[in-house]
Specification:
This protein is mainly α and 402 residues long. 70% of the residues lie in helices and 1% in strands.
Length: 402
């Protein structure tokens, strides 16, 4: 999922000095209070506004996706997304970042639904979970790659820009390049340029056997109404929203959370790699098992939630001493929340027929996904005040002499 970097690098940028440059972290306690109380409410809003943007863009952009050429719509929107990501380097205030994050989310809103509909339009029900897992596993893969890139950018000493500005320029350029590739994406197997005439017939017959239909650019309001009263559409949405209440905190505050365990800014970046590896492996593993074992999706979905609950409990109840093993282990196994998305998505796609109904169902799932992500706000507690006091003696990337 090459379009993941712009959304996921905020946590890395935060430890590169963005929080200082844009005043995202402010001291709210009197000067006499030691350690000081640090408020990250602005950083919380910067994270959450991304998902407010997704909520705003989901249905209008899905309408464009359903109504017009798939490749052109995706290409234009992903190009715009890449440009918006690169423009982050021009932001000078937290208010400007709020605007940028909203429109970044607005343009990303179509991506998960588009990939879901594309996969369901080429593969049978039995094959879809594995194929969904392949593209969604890149969220974990890019967490690993992004952590390595962040570590490399942390050692930049020259240039007129800050480290976090270079980071956004690279992520935006990668996204824009992917947008150019999207222009060659066909609407359905019937127009796939890599199939000959006989292969197109075979591809369509495979879908006809499952009675799932092929992509149609006409918006069918009867299917929309049917989706709105279909209980499983709402159940899947609630499942997604409930499972993803943890994602916003991990995405927006990951390196900051790890730094409160007594790790330096450099080390907190590298500790994102095990989390990403857990996401990557668990997504592919659940996809493979769903391909080999019939009717196992819901069982795996419930199973993947258990390590997440355990990881949150480990962070919550453990002692945060210097380089404590328990909270970092709990933080790492939280990565099992990632397969929940691919399993929820594939469950919906394998049980819904009709292009318009699929599009509505996918959009509905990601509405709840956004709601789950915007619930979090980072409130300073006694433990966090202690951690902030501890970190005052730890060098930061933005101020190495601190």
């Amino acid at each position: 999922m090459l379009t993941k970097p712009p959304q996921a690098i905020l946590g890395g940028a935060a430890v590169f000095g963005m929080t200082t440059d844009l005043h995202l972290r402010i001291v709210t306690s009197p000067p006499t209070v030691t350690p000081p109380v640090i408020s990250t409410t602005r950083l919380s809003w910067a994270t959450s506004l991304f998902y407010f943007g997704m909520l705003t863009g989901l249905y209008p952009l899905i309408y464009l996706f359903q109504r017009f050429s798939l490749g052109r719509v995706l290409g234009i929107i992903v190009l715009a997304w890449g440009v918006i990501a690169m423009l982050t380097a021009t932001v000078t205030t937290f208010r400007g970042l709020f605007v940028q994050r909203f429109f970044l989310g607005f343009t990303e809103s179509i991506m998960p639904t588009a990939f879901m509909v594309v996969v369901s339009g080429y593969y049978t029900q039995a094959e879809q979970t594995m194929r969904q897992s392949w593209w969604y596993s890149a969220t974990g893969g890019w967490t690993v790659i992004g952590a390595a890139l962040n570590y490399g950018f942390a050692h930049i000493t020259g240039g007129s820009l800050t480290k976090w500005q270079y980071l956004y320029l690279l992520a935006g350029a990668i996204t824009a390049l992917f947008g150019v590739c999207c222009f060659w994406l066909p609407n359905s197997p019937a127009s796939a340029w890599w199939f000959d005439g006989q292969e197109k017939i075979v591809a369509l017959e495979r879908l006809r056997m499952g009675q799932m239909g092929v992509r149609c650019q006409k918006l069918k309001w009867g299917q929309i109404r049917e989706a709105m009263i279909d209980p499983k559409v709402w159940i899947l949405g609630i499942m997604m929203g409930a499972a993803y209440t943890v994602n916003g905190a991990v995405t927006g505050f990951g390196p900051l959370i790890v730094s409160t365990f007594g790790y330096t800014a450099y080390e907190s970046l590298l500790w994102q790699m095990p989390l990403g590896a857990v996401c990557f492996v668990s997504i592919l593993l659940t996809g493979y098992l769903s391909l080999k074992v019939p009717n196992i999706r819901l069982i795996m979905l419930v199973t993947c939630c258990l390590p997440v609950i355990a990881g949150c409990a480990m962070i919550w109840k453990s002692t945060w001493y210097h380089h404590a093993a328990t909270p970092i282990a709990g933080y790492t196994i939280i990565g099992f929340f990632a397969p929940v998305t691919s399993l929820t998505v594939s469950t919906g796609m394998a049980n819904v027929a009709g292009a318009s109904k699929k599009s509505y169902m996918a959009a509905n799932i990601f509405v709840f996904y956004c709601v789950g992500n915007v619930r979090h706000f980072y409130r300073p507690s006694r433990r966090e005040r202690w951690a902030n006091g501890y970190r005052s003696s730890v060098p930061s990337l933005s101020n190495p002499r601190r």
